[in-house]
Amino acid sequence: MNKRKFSIATGGILLVSFVVCLIIGSFMNRAYAADMNNLEKETRSAIEEQGSDNVNGILQLAGFSKENEKAAAAREIRVIPGGQSIGIKLNTMGVLVVGHHLVDTVDGKQSPGEKAGIRVGDIITEINGKKVEKMQEIRPFVQQAGQETEPLKVTIYRNKKVIHAALKPMKDENDQSFKIGLYIRDSASGIGTLTFFEPNSKKYGALGHVIADADTRKPIIIENGEIVKSKVTSIEKGRNGNPGEKLAQFSTDQNKLGNITRNSPYGVFGQLKQPPPNGLIKESYPVALSHEVKEGPAKILTVVNGEKVEWYDVEIVSTIPQKYPGTKGMVLKVTDKELLDKTGGIVQGMSGSPIIQNGKVIGAVTHVFVNDPTSGYGVHIEWMLNEAGISLTKSEQNEAS
Questions:
Q1: What is the CATH topology of the domain spanning 76-89+187-400?
Q2: What pLDDT score does 241 carry?
């Protein structure tokens, strides 16, 4: 055999050996992992009789991973389930632009705001270097700038960026006043359902989803807000293709139950002055993590008449053990005949109704399926707790503090 053939043969042997080693190594790793997994199960089973509180410590000393920190924290958290109908009042950060309108000027119909590049969904936070929070604060700036024929220096918050624009008011020939051609809003209101109250911190969570502006469809960035008592006056029953709705009333001058400090994808959050009134449940319940939620029967708490909170039966059709926050963690179906007769299933205003399963608060109702009002989505309670600042891990607790 010459040197060239010997070299080729040797290379082939080495390549085959390398591949074989990879296969054997992979097999051994899997076998080792399986053995360790079985060993951990056997060890856990052997010490289970000593009590669950000792399991984690012994496993840790034995070299196994300790129990999930969240699960340990969740066992200590207890919340009072809500179900009450609440009125929600939000004050926006600055003044929200919800539309353009045309001003009838000597040069024809124009929108000064649109010409200045101001968009629907923009938030006006300052004019001429001064902070603005209310719609009525803008009018004096507009009239003065119009009379002086000077543009307004407008500071805008758009998509988490600060933008500056020059906005020149134009005189309306109909009423001889200066206008900027923008529809604006500084507040929003609606109804929802209280999900939970944590008695130690007095923190609460409600609604289970973000509040968006009715015109822009964008989440409302809030300065502050409050929740008040609400009374359900009637129900518009849901039908296929037409979600129903709770019709409720609340007074803007009612004593507030609590404040609103956060409007997030998982609901609205803040603190209550005292335990929520008119609750069906007075004692606190433990909470369940997403992996503890099971398909099968559950109950919700909600109001369909007046201020009376009642139990209703639902079925958890599917649930996702979420490692990371998600707004649609489970699908539920209303099975309670009484609730179906009254509402047709899930209706608007029911968002935030707490879901209870096996003696634990597992989440809240959030959305209805338009083509099947008997069914909808729910959010897992752990993500609402996290948004409320009731942390399930030490690292999150340190950050919150």
A1: Thrombin, subunit H (2.40.10)
A2: 86
